[in-house]
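Example 3.2
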Amino acid sequence: MRTIDLRPGEDSIRLGQLLKLVDAVPTGAQVKDVLLSGVVTVNGEPEERRGRQLRSGDVVAIEGAEDVRIG
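Structure, written as tokens:
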């Protein structure tokens, strides 16, 4: 499992930003398509909202990729 640390002073990151950060999608325009395809879960629950706020301890799973924990 890969861990992504939040920047100092930040307490969350949006799901769409995280997907781009870990190269799960090549462009921001493709984030919506990936989320609507149902291959992304947050803490074991399917998630389709690109603006979902992720906080320390959340785990994002992307089908076919390594899980990511927010540190």
